[in-house]
Amino acid sequence: RLRVMQDKGFGKNLKGHLPSTENDRKRASPFKMTTVGGRSGDASRKMTRITPFQHTIQADPEFAEKTWNVLENAIREVFERNTGNLSYEQLYRLAYTMVLAKFGDFLYNNVNNTISDHLKTLANSLSSRSELSDYNLLKELRTEWDWYKLSISHLRDILMYMDRTFVANRKKKSVYDLGVGLFRDIVVRDARLQPMILKAFLDCVDRDRNEEPIDWQLLGAITKLLSDMRTDARGLNVYQVELEKPFLEHSARYYRGYSQTCLATMTCAGYLSNAETKLAEENRRVEQYLESRTRGKLESVLLEELIEKNLPTLIDMPSGLVYMLQNDRIADLKLLRSIFRRVPAGENVICQGLKKEVVYQGMKIVGDGDDAREPVEMVRSLLDLKAKYDKILASVFSVSSGSKETEDGPDVQMLPADSGPETLVVGAPSLRAISTANVMIDKRYLNVVHEGFEECMNSYNRSAEYLSLYVDLQLRQEFKDMNEDDIDTRLNADVTLFRFLQDKDVFARYYTQHLSKRLLQARVTSDDAERSFLVKLKNECGFLYTSKMESMFNDIKTSEDIQASYRAWRSSNMEIETDEGAGDSSTELRVTVLTTGAWPIQSTPLCTLPKNLLSSLASFETFYYSKHEGRKLAWQTSHGTAEIRGYFQRSARPYEMSVSVHSMVVLMLFNAKNSLLYEEIAAESKIPETDLQRTLQTLSLA
């Protein structure tokens, strides 16, 4: 740019008045005119071009120093908060001129040095005032920072042209960023002042943790101060380095000691409740005077010091997990799980303790194998224990439907909705889950409960037999006056224990024996209940597992049809049978035809039956062979029953008795004699010795 406007003659020349002579032109303007010719022979195309003369402008050698002295004094006045007499327009022009005159580097360095000198004085002043309390030190720091930011803003306005040109071209820090960085390096990181600021801040935090009143807005201002400084020359975040890291370390030390004090004086539930309160308090502190990014880190520190490092201690406390499980402390268990699940090993510790307690309680029920409890009592106690833990699983170790944890997560499963809103459908060891309406069970806990029951049940070799006896009792007696829903609930509970049996074939062997007795002795109270239980067993183990049992039911149904046909046949052939001596109208015979191999019955020799009964057997054989050619009947009297009427001495009225066929044979022998020896009974009845002893024992003790 050329300062041509200072020459009045040139200003006049710009209006089109050219000087008359060459000397006048030279004297009037620093420019010279040159005529440039056009094409050859064309004089009309000549052009006039104005160019400046090549001469040197002499600058004031002390211009930079003088100008900077003015600016320096103004900057110091800004820092001293005496800005009332300053002309920002004049100061801006001075800085503008220095940059134009190529003194930008000189100006930038001197601004840096002036700010540094001021900040060094400030740091010395703050660090030397030992009489300042924690609060007053932080207040002074906040005040100085607020004034300093305002001062730097004024400097930024004065040096705006330098920021836009020189700083941008040289890729240096802007005036404001330069000022913030210098405050960070000279004041905040001063060797004497830095520990004073940190101690003051942490002491205030400790007072807050001890429920003493503090000015949390002041702490928030200090946090904002450090956050405004962003990163240093090494790329490290100032807030994280200067405050967050030492704050987290201090918090870890504080809660490490605090946890030991609480463990010595509190119950497990009280400790966990207090830990939850402390987590909420620290979250509030983050919201009030820390950056939000610190929340997760601080929570991790608290969980590590309060919970993770004390997991075994909390679980094994007299008021710990075992106490909560034994006393159905649902609310305490919920609290324990909600906090433990927030640390890496928390839920594994709960699972281990839960399984251990299930096994312990189960072993108390089943005994050591040599001194086991009465079968029905043992199974009922196991069912009560399972119901107890079903309730705990549904109440404590569940997640709500639609929550984040259930969105196709690997740790949660839910049964179909048609399993019913009120019935607990207990999962099998194949990782199914309990579902009640909108409740889903975390399968990790479900599995450990199942593993515990499986371990204690299979530790006793008669568990399968006892379970079969219990189901037999229910189907023979207890289901007599129950409605279908109650029966189904009971059967579901039975199937629950059945799932835990490792050798299910043992159960099948005992169950078929008990089932055969119920069917043959007509002790079935509910055919629907019998069929329902078979369906449940089939769903668990497949068709082959229940094929023989279903065949037994089919035999009973077929035998009813055969019996009806036999009665009709016998009525129409009564006269013929009487003439042949093959039947006895005083004897009513009911025969059940069993399929060989389907029933758990060993073939036994036929005992000596009364003659009138033998004629009825012959009559049935005649009927049956006429309907089924090629088949052969083998009478199994050891599994039959008889209803007889007897008269005894000193009693005028008859007695009607329901006994086994073998008992009937023995009693009939006493029609001929009043007393018989054992050998005589054995010889005449031809009952196998083992069965005869059992029969005589039953009759003598009845």
Q: Could you write a compact summary of the structure shown?
A:
The chain is mainly α. It is 63% helix and 5% strand.
Textual characterization of the structure:
It contains 29 helices and eight strands. It has 702 residues and is mostly helical. Strands 3, 4, 5 and 6 form a four-stranded antiparallel β-sheet that branches. Helix 3 (63-79) runs parallel beside helix 5 (104-128), helix 6 (134-158) packs antiparallel against helix 8 and helix 6 (134-158) packs parallel to helix 10.
Could you name the key traits of this structure?
29 helices, two-stranded antiparallel sheet, 702 residues, four-stranded antiparallel β-sheet
Please provide the count of β strands.
8
The total of helices stands at 29
Which percent range describes the beta-strand content? under 5%
Shape: rod-shaped
| Computed Rg | 52 Å
Question: How would you state the average pLDDT, rounded?
Answer: 84
Largest sheet: 4 strands, antiparallel
What structural class do you assign from the helix and strand content?
mainly alpha
N/C terminus separation: 135 Å
Quaternary state reads single chain
- The amount of helix comes to 55-70%
Low-confidence stretches: 1-32, 406-410, 412-437, 578-582
